[in-house]
Amino acid sequence: MKIGVLIGSFTGNNKHLADVIQKELKQLQPDYQFEEIMINQETNKQLTSKNYQYSNFDAYIVGCFTDCLVAPPYVLSYLNNYPQAFLKNKYVLTFNAHGGDGGSVQHNLHQLFLRKEAKPVSHIKIKYCNNYIGLTYPKNELEVQGIKRDQFAQVHPKCVLYNNLLQNKAPYVFPKQSCGPRLGSFLTTPLFKKITNVMSMKYTRK
Ligand SMILES: Cc1cc2nc3c(=O)[nH]c(=O)nc-3n(C[C@H](O)[C@H](O)[C@H](O)COP(=O)(O)O)c2cc1C
């Protein structure tokens, strides 16, 4: 089985997390073949090539950093352009190595894959660094020691779930959203905007 690993990473943290996930899955099922696609480079290729070709995989692992509480627009744009036929009915495990508040990345990715009729399985979300210049570069095992080890405990059960689905050993269930993304998505609904408009009119009226 060929699994496409699509990564949006500038300073290497999400690439590191993608490597951890692939290592875990390889232990569960040595037959898996992984192909990494670095979305940053692909975006450049897309812009310069007229005949850019997307790759069709049996399943996907997709992750990126948090950019001002959401998935980076260039990542969403690349995934939006991914042919629906290559994603339809395929299992997708998502991940996000962030700097303290992963924001709505899970929500953004899962909604996008639902629109493509893919099957989001679960989301691995780990704080890799603090949001300060100079602290955003854990690149090797030694530097990664600064990351709380217990956060990595979620990788194993989520990879087991993903592996069970790929091996047809479990029924598919749409993953639960954590409170953060649910609150984030509520803050952008027309209902919330209407409530804030009414409240601001009420309190600014003379
Ligand atoms: C423009 C920009 C905005 C960011 N916004 C957030 C944010 O809202 N929340 C957060 O936790 N981290 C934020 N970060 C930090 C990155 O998500 C974090 O450093 C991540 O681990 C980087 O992943 P990478 O090494 O794969 O590029 C931001 C980083 C940049 C460059």
In short:
The chain has 206 residues and is α/β, with parallel strands linked by helices.
Protein described:
This protein is α/β, with parallel strands linked by helices and 206 residues long. The chain has 2 domains: 2-175, 3-Layer(aba) Sandwich (Rossmann fold); 177-206. Helices cover 43% and strands 17% of the residues. It is built from 9 helices and 5 strands. Strands 2-1-3-4-5 form a 5-stranded parallel sheet, sandwiched between helices. Strand 4, helix 5 and strand 5 form a beta-alpha-beta unit. It is globular. The model has no long low-confidence stretch (mean pLDDT 87). Bound molecules: flavin mononucleotide. Flavin mononucleotide is lined by residues 9-14, 65-69, 97-103, 128-129, 131, 136.
CATH topology value of the largest domain = Rossmann fold
Helix content: 40-55%
| Attached small molecules | flavin mononucleotide
Please report the total strand number as a whole number: 5
Q: Which spans have pLDDT < 50 for at least 5 consecutive residues?
A: none
Biggest beta sheet attributes = 5 strands, parallel
Tell me the radius of gyration: 18 Å
Encode the helix/strand succession as letters. Answer: EHEHEHHEHEHHHH
| Strand order across the largest sheet | 2-1-3-4-5
Domain count: 2
Q: If classified by CATH, what would the architecture of the largest domain be?
A: 3-Layer(aba) Sandwich
H/I helix tally: 9
**Which structural class is indicated by helix and strand composition?**
alpha/beta
Protein name: 4Fe-4S ferredoxin iron-sulfur binding domain protein
Organism: Hexamita inflata
InterPro entries: Flavoprotein-like_sf
